[in-house]
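Issue: ligand-bound run for adenosine-5'-triphosphate - logging full I/O for the record.

Environment: standard queue, default settings, no custom constraints.

Inputs:
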Amino acid sequence: MARAVSTRRKLAFTALAWIVALVVFFPILWAFLTSFKTEGTAIAAPPKFLFFEWTLENYRTVLERSNYFRFLGNSIITAVGSTLLGLVVAIPAAWAMAFSPTRRTKDVLMWMLSTKMLPAVGVLVPITMLFRMMGLTDTHLGLVLVLTLINLPIIVWMLFTYFKEIPVDILEAARMDGASLRQEVIYVLTPMAIPGIASTLLLNIILAWNESFWTIVLTTTQATPLPAFIAAYSSPEGLFWAKLSAASMMAIAPILIMGWFSQKQLVRGLTFGAVK
Amino acid sequence: MGSITLEHVNKSFGGVEVIPDISLEIADGEFIVFVGPSGCGKSTLLRLIAGLEDVTSGRILIDGEDVSRAAPAQRKLSMVFQSYALYPHMSVRGNIAFPLKMEKAPREKIDQAVNNAAAILNLTDYLDRKPRQLSGGQRQRVAIGRAIVRQPKAFLFDEPLSNLDAALRVAMRLEISELHNKLKTTMVYVTHDQVEAMTMADKIVVLNAGRVEQFGSPLELYQRPANTFVAGFIGSPRMNFIDGAEAARHGAHTIGVRPEHLVVTPEGGDWSGVVKVSEHLGSDTFLHVDVDGIGALTARAPGDVPFRHGETVGLSPMNGRLYRFDAQGLAL
Ligand SMILES: Nc1ncnc2c1ncn2[C@@H]1O[C@H](COP(=O)(O)OP(=O)(O)OP(=O)(O)O)[C@@H](O)[C@H]1O
Ligand SMILES: [Mg+2]
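Outputs:
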């Protein structure tokens, strides 16, 4: 295939990919630049691109005014917590569906995924009421639970596709070789499933990290993660573009760094294992 | 010890009967080959013996003990899969050692058994590689190594050579035969290649649509096929079948004669026809001859016969080499 594509077409596709990437990336780049501008330069017309006086003032102010590290801590606790809890529930579920499917397995999977098609606001009222009644509002536990639940269908679906890829022959070989069910799981299945589980884990941490709707709605002060940190710089105090940008940069930096270091696993995860 | 007995084994998959009723006796130390066309139930029968599928009814006995409901591990058999089914995350050493690790054998015993198997199978230099770093033939040997370390009661092979190229297939065929001579352990070997069946087997089970068409030594099947199916399946090129008046003249519904049992003469002979194609293999020549009122016949002649396309030749079956079958296809 690759060889059949002519050089000119390859160039055209590369250019196209770059253009698309730039368009997608532009808002982030702009926020990055704005975060180093003064509030005045930030709203200057015509906008200044690179040649302005760079300043760290916004970062200083944001760090002074709000407790960034508490938000960061909350984000880490809820993203990692909900991902781990999700995996604990999803691994056995996906496992069962992949290795001993019944006639209804496909339906169950579809039904689980279909819950993701409902707009979140649709269940806003019942969820907030449940949270209030159970005293979960503005708690880590509440946030972990809700993040787990909204991402569970995706976790199960991803794990299911990974487990499905494990050849049955190999499991049968282990059975022939005298492995008990426990040994089969420990020595054969798990090592083969770990790359898939790792990809799912990474992707889900990102999804949970970026979830803003529920995290803003269900927290007020104590359990607020980073999306709420950004939001704090938009409405209540009027629009301060430069500070808002600085806050956004600080909110996405950790996840961006994590994503950078785990690119390979992540791409595999996002393409559901299609890239080998 | 490793005798295997099947008693009225029946297997259905959700109402579809794949194996209606098979009874079979495999003696200890025999090399048995299941052969038959694709989809006839060879793999299913092997997997029933292995315990990877449960019999719907009937019994399977190993060394006289009923194992019909026993888990695969309890049957103490080893299996080599068509796909090799090696553990991709383990080294060659890890793969071969796996069955012994599962039975918690002592460290020294495992090392010794692995080194032994590696030496037998020429894998000593590859012990620390991962399966993906091996060629197809080497992977196959690792799969065999994994099967032999446990000293099973019997080996089960499911088309182990079908992913290899022709030359390697011949070499591995010999290796497996030698292995059988050395170990003298019962082997049950599935293939759809009748040459593999003929060359390796002590006894062949010819399967067709889940039924045993014939069970016997390669020569028995070749010399006394029980019916037209076996007659046509065993032997290459295929046996010629003739129906109608010519068959009736011999008092049969169908007569059959193998290409190697037709004598080719420039003229005369029982049947006379025109050469359509002559295939020169060097050692032999296969002549495809169109005979009036009978149809196309294949004859195997020496490598240097002069007959060419369009020439008329005479064909006669050798004495006593004509097979006669009734309307049901059974040998008369
Ligand atoms: N798990 C299963 N569920 C339903 N039908 C099955 C199952 N396994 C096998 N069959 C059917 O049983 C029949 C025999 O299959 P089997 O795999 O034993 O054939 P085979 O002789 O090994 O063929 P091949 O030479 O192609 O490997 C086929 O018709 C197949 O469709
Ligand atoms: Mg098969």
